[in-house]
Amino acid sequence: MRNVLMLALGLSLSAPVFADGFREVGREGRLTEYEGSVSLAGRVERRQDAETLVWRGDRVCFTPDAASAARLPPSAGKASSRFFCFSNNRSAAGLLGIPAQPPAGSCGVTGTATVVVSRYTVESGENVFDQAWLDRVERPGALTPLACP
Question: N or C: which end of the chain has fewer CB within 10 A?
Fold first, then answer.
């Protein structure tokens, strides 16, 4: 019995746990997956200009403020920006009130929000971005059009 308890304790300590509950649950190739959830404040955006659509696709993304970024798992080689996109893109757009098409004369929208995310995935490599599942929006902010580049 004691050996079973020691093994269980050792396994629970083997995966890093972050301040707000993210815990590493798996690694495969360039991906590291975390479970748990956290509330983040920051800037949401959906860029729909031609250049962004080529490299990132039509994605709803989020850049947490400095205090919120500290709650995220480490992201190899991405210390300057803790930018990520939502893995449940379509429902994220709906939850945030982001229209399918950008306002006339613009190339997307941006705004602030406080959101709760889970299932965080870090992808290492060049020209990639982390992803998280948007669970809910705690405080939506007003959206404003983004100028085209």
Answer: N
